[in-house]
Amino acid sequence: MSKEKLPKQYLQIKKRYAKYFKAVEELGKVVKQEGPLDERTAHLIQLAGAATVHSEGAVHSHVRRAMEAGVTPEEIYHAIILLTSTIGFPTVVAALSWAEDVIKNKGKKVRT
Predict the structure, then answer these.
(1) How far apart are CA 42 and CA 65, in angstroms?
(2) Residue 46 domain-assigned?
(3) Does any domain span residue 93?
(4) 4, 108 in Cβ contact below 8 A?
(5) pLDDT of residue 1
(6) What is the distance of C-alpha 67 from the center of its chain?
(7) pLDDT at position 3
(8) Is 94 helix (H, G, I), strand (E, B) or coil?
(9) How far apart are CA 43 and CA 20, in angstroms?
């Protein structure tokens, strides 16, 4: 993760369940290495998943990570609107607003 201030809940879980948290982090690293997709594409897929499950915090996180990997705001918005026929217009609008929270703050941590 970036060096920005992390959400309190994230830090509490990391401290309380250190072994579990390490395993989850390792899983994330391993699955990214298991196939041919580049880092930018992987972040956009994770962003789509976060939008699909209506997770504002995960959308914030994956937008931030995607931008760190060089994904442009236009690509982020496009990835989200591509979901319209799959997850519905209201969910897409919510995800766009969450993405914009991060984009307008240039990737800084947004409180959720």
Answers:
(1) 10
(2) yes
(3) yes
(4) yes
(5) 43
(6) 10
(7) 45
(8) helix
(9) 23
Looking at 32-36, 37-41, 98-102, 103-107, which range is the least confident one? Answer: 103-107
Segment 55-98, tens digit of pLDDT: 999 999 999 999 999 999 999 999 999 999 999 999 999 999 99
In single-letter form, the type of residue at position 104 comes to K
Identity of the amino acid at 101:
D
Contact 67, 103 (CB under 8 A): yes
Any domain includes 112: no
* Cα distance between residue 85 and residue 88, in whole Å: 6
DSSP for 34-71, please give it. SSS--HHHHHHHHHHHHHHTT-HHHHHHHHHHHHHTT-
